[in-house]
Structures are given as structure tokens and as C-alpha cells.
Amino acid sequence: MADVTHPELTKPVFEHHPDGFGISNPRPRLSWKFLASAEPTRGWTQAAYEVEILRHGDQEAQTFLVDSEESVLVPWPAAALRSRQQASVRVRCWGQSPDEHGTVRRNPEPTSWSPVASLEVALLEQSDWTASMITSSRRLGPEAPLQPLRFRRQFEIPSSVVTSSARARLYITALGVFEAFLNGERLGDECMAPGWTSYNHRLTYRCLDVTPHLRHHGNNVIAVEVAEGWYATKLGFNGGTRFLYGGKDIAVMAQLEITSGARSWTLTTDDNWACAVSAIQSSELYDGEVYDAREDHSLWTTAAQDADKMGTRWLRVKTLPQVPGRKLLTTSSPPVRVIESRQVQAIHKTPAGKTIVDFGQNLAGKVVVKSVTLAAGERLVLRHAEVLEHGELCTRPLKDAKCEDVIIGSGEEICNWTPKFTFHGFRYVQVDGWPGSEDELRSALSASVMHSDMQRRGYFSCSNEWVNKLHTNVVWSMRGNFLSVPTDCPQRDERLGWTGDIQIFCPTASYLYDTVGFLENWLEDLSSEQLEQGNNGVPPFVSPEVPLLTWPRRKPQAVWHDVTVLTPWDLHRFSSDKVLLERQFQSMRAWLEQGVDRGEDGLWNFYLWQLGDWLDPNAPPQNPALALTDKVLVADAYLVHTTEVFAQVCALLGKAELATKYRAEASTLKRLFQDKYLTPSGNIMSNTQTAIALALQFGLYRGPAQRRTASRALSKLVRTAFFHVSTGFAGTPAVLPALAGPARQPQLAYRMLLEKACPSWLYPVTMGATTTWERWDSMLPDGSVNPGRMTSFNHYALGAAADWLHGCVGGLAPLGAGWRVALVRPVPGGNLTHAEARFDGPYGLLRCAWRVTASPAAASSAAAGEAARFEMELEVPPNSSAKVILPCDWITDPGDEAEEAFTLVGSGVHHFACDFVAGEWPPKALPPPNMPYSPEMDMVAE
Ligand code: BGC
């Protein structure tokens, strides 16, 4: 056993919290992972772990030794933590690995200790809060939009808590979005704090360490600026609705606590604070921000002696009553931050003589102006848009959102200006009123990319640069739409938490970034809103709920509302978090038991209006629901799948009776689906890419013969469509996996992937897209923008195909919950000669890199297409394993029900090689008889 190399452990994390500071859980579960060492030991698994916990203030640490293989979300071993309590935690493990004879032996030596992780508990009880929500005592500024307010309070710290070990915490939240300052310094770097939740159910607060900003002697000033944010701004299309949560006042609630040993002192928001209007005249999510430099007083955040320099009109504040039932809590959802800054790529003069700055990337965020001097009253206007049309800024797709920021000059230099309380979805900015030269403009402007600061963890690349660009675009559309809540788009008058969009994109997103903290936060709102009395288990279309004028409220919808079951399930697949499943359980069950509007047979109500395969490219631009595939068929296919998943959830959570009930219900529904939609030989009622792909993916065919029919029918549809996509939201995530998986036709999947003409995944890439689009043809081939009313250039939904890139092309998918066991089944094909997928998951880095070369040895056995040599390097992190299926072991008959041959491997670096025959490339289209076959039909992205 002498040569075992132990893996190194990472710093433990608490629940899904980004840093453990300000957690709302008194018994946070712990997870650690393993760092790849230069020579990772093969087959290393954990046999036991030891957790050391030092509560601050205690003399001695406690240790807990646990015989367990678990390293993800293990229970908190000590007594529950109290509000404000701090602790340091580290972990070490004992491992076991096979010796030279293959016998697994436990190593007597533990690993080294992990780095120490610190945690601090937030305020666990509502009674820990003594602060009041405060707002101005009388209306300042217009009725709407509300003008941002400034709040301030001057104070001295009592000498009893002035010690060198004093620690200061600010617990703060707002009705609106805020920035806080202590003695002139900005606290933290969060944008749009505290984010968007369903405020009448849950209001999140922040916990900030403000110790370094305090002045122990003399005057301190705490100052907070608050704007309407999601709380009061107008939200939703067709004019939107203001004051969604009832309140017409923006407000702040803050509690500053200074602790020194056993002594503490607290300053809270109360009627001793003062309030004034901000220099920001208005700041709205859709319309943008107007800043008047003449009204600014830089000293308002500091302990100015001279009242004039901080503005004179400071008023009293009043306190607002508590909203009954609203919970105050912290969240594991990471804060929104400026993640990246991008420079100007080009400046265009338009035919109309306008100046347009191009940042080269469609993004969500805001512009920074490094320096500008405008005469008093002069306006600099920044108008944002995603695309140009006929050389001009194209604002039609923004619908009723103005997306305009304005700076009004004071005659003095304005430095590092950026809007504080809004964001836009843009690549281009039209600049009106720039006082300097083009060169000065180029160096003065930059774009800040904003999103929730989740941990990036999944990567993909391959030999085809078109596909790589597609993948990069998918990542950018995720970044553009994970801003506090998962949105449909970041630019027009929506930016809402559309349930269907995240339902289909969650697996892709969860590979790319660690989404669990972010999405569990969102799911809690979804279920709170769904389970409100009177909703009969039906969630809103968008959560947090926003009334959609001209839309029905709470109409049960397949695909969209199946998010209640499928998204927690996906998060469980990525994290193995059963507590999350338990928390969402009532929501899942309410959806299936009350929400789904069923006909007498238990399938969906036949007459119900459904969005169905929304945005099928065959639907007319003005009616995206008019898809080729029958909508109820889509809904019913999903219902069988959702019921099956729910049965699995019941089983996992130990609810055996319910599991049996739902397993039986799923098989009844499946039979009903088969009777309703399938002919005995396996033809499906809607003969479309979406219908067949869903039925294949959800296992709805009756047996081998029907699956063969389905595979043939799908092949014919794809070939007669010249490999164009003909799926909308429902079919898009399914069609490539169905072709490469149950239909056993991976080359057809590649052929579709590599098609460049519209509609296809690569068409937007040929048009210079830098994000994924809402429509397959958001921009038409002639460069004009789709005439449909909704046309975004930053929607992640159709990018859900990247899940296939990760799982099939790259070859990495979760098999056991939380990636304890990975399925490694790479599917080489098309014109790709290599691909690599890397996933830094719950156990550490999993990496699969493959390469294909011509194989003279295998050539003689090639029946169709060229034989190839496949070589793969696979790295599996400690304490996990992988089930590996090589291309030579693929089953090629869609009717064959045998299991493919596989190898199970443990941690370490493994090499595999085999000969294989990918099949005909490129596969042939099926043109109509009056169209002779031409070489263009075989043209793919090279
Ligand atoms: C949104 C979507 C959404 C759809 C449903 C659109 O306006 O942008 O992505 O899922 O409506 O109707």
C-alpha cells in the first residue's frame, strides 16, 4: 500500500452557498471535492471522513469521525448553529483503493486536511430583526416612475464596543434595489441587490462585513440609495403593470451590528434617518436611467460638515408596517455582479448620421463612461439594441422598452459613470450628444457584463469551429439570462422568469455553471406562488408572477408548468440534493394532482389551449403557437414523462406507496398515449420531428417494431427537410438526442447539427450571431429582422441542444445522482475529428477527450462509410466512477433492446481505443423528384 497518492481536498462548501457568509441554515450540509493530482491514484474512493469544527469563541475544536463514502451534502455533524455564529471547518478523509492484485484496501493514513472554510450564520429568527422598513415621509418626485431615494444616518460608535477585535455586520434589504455606503465607500460589489423574489412571499437580505469601513472615533455615516428595481417598476408586455407588490414606496431596511466580545451595539433604520431624492431622476428596468449631474452632491455618503455639499433637501422618513407572511431570509443564489468588461470593437456612422458603438458581443449589462464633460443641462443619450437593420440601430424588437440611459451634464467632468439600477440587453449603443472625438469615445466607453455570479464548471470544444462558436453563443445566452432569476431575454419588455424556457434549458445550464443555489431560490418562489390558495396547483407562466396583459392568468400548460417536477429533478441529477426534492415535493404533487387539466381518461383536456411546440419554424411569424405538431400530443407525451419522473422522486424520498401509485399511473397514461396517438405499426399521429423525437426520448413506443418504424420515419422527415430543424421549444432539446440515441442514427444528428442554411443551429452563426436567438430566423437571410412581434437575439431556449454536445458529442452525462457515476458514451461522427468535454462537478474534474483517425485495419470491414480509429482519454475524479461505452459497442438497430457492452472505471486517467464505423457521411437528403440531387445538398459546416 506504500504508493497510494491521496487526492487533495478542496475547501468544504456549505449547502449551495457561494461562500458560506450569511447562511440561513443552522445545520448546513457540507461538501468537498477532490483536486486532480499529477498522478491520480486509480480507483480511489473515500471510506471515512473527519470534520473539524471550531466555533469562534470556543477554545477547542470538535471533531467528528464518520465512516462514510459520502462527500457531497453530508449532514452537519455538530449542534445547530445560532444566529450570527461563526465557525471554521475543515475536512480530511481516509481512502481506499485497489492494490496490485485488485483487492480494495483501506489506507491507514488520512489525506491532508482541506483548506479551512469559514462560515457565518445570518439572522435565523424574524425576531433577530429590530430594524424597520423606512421610506420618505412624503412623496418625493413623480408618482411614477418613482425617483430613486437616498437615505442617510450619521452616528458615533459608543466607546464600549470600540476595540480592535470589534466586528461589524450590516444586514440590509430594500423594497427596490439598493447600493449602500459607509463613510463614503461602497459596500460590496453586488448589482441590483437584493435581487428579485416574489416579494410578498420572500424578501432576501444581504449580510455584509463592514468592519474595515467603520471609523471608531468621530462621526460615521451610513448611506443607502434605493431605486424601484423589480419591486415597483412596470413589468410585462403591452404597457406592463407597475407596483406589482402593492406598495408604492421604495424603502430600505438595515441593521448595523457592532460586536466586541460580549458587548454589542446596533443601529437600525428607524425614523431618525433622513431621506432625499437622488441625482438619478428615474431608473427603470425597461426604460433605463436618467442621471442629472447638476443634482449630485458627492458628499451625501460622507460625514460632511457642510450641509450644502450633500444637498439641502433632506427630509424625515417614516416607517412602513411589516407585510404579514413575508419571510426575510438570505439565499444561496449568488449575487449579480459585473463579471467582465468589454471594450469597443468598432464605431459606425450610420446612413442617418448617427454614431453607433459596437461592443462585438450581445450581452446583458450596462455601459461605463470613463470620463465626459458636458455643459450644464447638455444631454448624452445612450440607446441600446442588439442588432442593426439597414445600418441603423434596430429598436423594434425591444417593443415597449426604451433601453435608454441619459446623462445630463453639470459643466464638470463626470468620471466612471454607469447606470446603477438598470441593465440592458445589447451589442450596439447609439451615442447621441457625445462632446468629443471618435477616438475619445472609443477609449471612454466600455460595456460591463452583468449576471448572477455562479461558478463556471462545464466546458466543451471540438475540431469544428462552427460548432464551437455555437457553443460559445449558448454560454453567452445563458450569461445574458441568469440575472437574479432565469429569464427569457434581457432586452425587451419581458425579462421574465418564463417557466418553459428554464424547464428545457436547465440541463444545459447546470452543466455550464453551478446553478443549484440560483435555481433552488427561484423554485421556492415558483412553489410559493403556485401553492397560494385558489390557484389549484397551477403555477404562474412566469415566476416571480407578473400579470401578462392579454394573457390568461394561471392556465395550466404542459412543458412550461412541467418545470415544477422536471427542474427539481434535473437539479437532483446534477447535485444529488434530496432536501431540495423534499422542499419542492408539494409543488410537484400539486401540479400533477390538481394543476394538470385532464380529460376523463386522465390525459390532458383535449380542448385546452396549449403553447405546444412553441416557435416551430414552420409556424407563421405572428403565431408561434401554430406548430406542425399537435399540441395535445406534446402535452400528453410530457405528462407521461413527468408522471414517471415524479414516481422516481417518490421512490427516492422513501414514499413507497406514492411511488407505486405513480408508477402505475405512468404506465396507464403511457398505454392511453399509445392507444390515442400510435398506429399498431408505430406511426404517430403527428408525423413530425418533434412528435417522434419526444416519443422516442420519453420511451413511448410499444416495442422494437414500433421503434424501428419511428427511427425510419424520423430519418425520412429529416432527410426530406434537407436536414433543417423543424422543432420548437418542445422538440428542440429532444431531436438530436433521439436521433443519436434511441433512433440509432447519430450521423443524421450530426448532419442536422452541421447544417448552415435556415432554419438550423448554425444559421445564426453564419449571420454573425454572438448569442442564441429566440427564433430560428430572428434575423432573416437578407439581414432584416423577423417581422414577428417578439424577436429576441438573446434567448437560451433553442440552445438546449448544447446538452447533446456535452452528453453525446463530448460524452459526459450524469448517470448516478450528482455525477457520482458518469455515463461516458461519446458519439464521434460527422466531420468532427476530436472533441473534449470537461466538467468540474461535485467530485472534481471529469474530462473526456477523444480523437478519430482513419484506420486502415478497420477499413476492410466498413460496410458503409469509412472506418475509423477512435482513441479516448478519460479522467475520473476520486470517489466517483464512470460507465464507459465505446463506439465499437454501439447497438445500431433501434429495435434491439439488449444493453450495450460497457466498462466501469474508477478514478484516475484511463485510455481507450477501438475501431468503429460511423456510418454514411454525409447522409443523403431526399429531394422531391423534380429536384435533381446537387452537391449543395451535401454542404455542411466544415
Ligand atoms: C417568451 C418566451 C416564452 C413564451 C411563451 C415569450 O414571449 O419570450 O420565451 O416561453 O413567450 O409564450
Automatic annotation (TrEMBL):
Pfam families hit by this protein: Bac_rhamnosid, Bac_rhamnosid6H, Bac_rhamnosid_C, Bac_rhamnosid_N, Ig_Rha78A_N
Location of the Bacterial alpha-L-rhamnosidase N-terminal domain: 166-340
Catalytic activity: Hydrolysis of terminal non-reducing alpha-L-rhamnose residues in alpha-L-rhamnosides
Location of the Alpha-L-rhamnosidase concanavalin-like domain: 349-450
Gene Ontology MF terms in the entry: alpha-L-rhamnosidase activity
EC annotation from Swiss-Prot or TrEMBL: 3.2.1.40
Domain Alpha-L-rhamnosidase six-hairpin glycosidase: 456-809
InterPro entries: 6-hairpin_glycosidase_sf (IPR008928), 6hp_glycosidase-like_sf (IPR012341), Alpha_rhamnosid (IPR016007), Bac_rhamnosid6H (IPR035396), Bac_rhamnosid_C (IPR035398), Bac_rhamnosid_N (IPR013737), Ig-like_fold (IPR013783), Rhamnosid_concanavalin (IPR008902)
Alpha-L-rhamnosidase C-terminal domain location: 811-888
GO term, biological process aspect, one: carbohydrate metabolic process
Keyword Chaperone applies: no
Keywords, sorted A to Z: Hydrolase
First-tier enzyme category under EC: hydrolase
Family annotation (SUPFAM superfamilies): Six-hairpin glycosidases
Lineage: superkingdom: Eukaryota
Gene3D superfamilies (alphabetical): 1.50.10.10, Galactose-binding domain-like, Immunoglobulins, Maltose phosphorylase, domain 3
Transmembrane segments: none
Name used for this protein in its record: alpha-L-rhamnosidase
Natural source organism: Thyridium curvatum
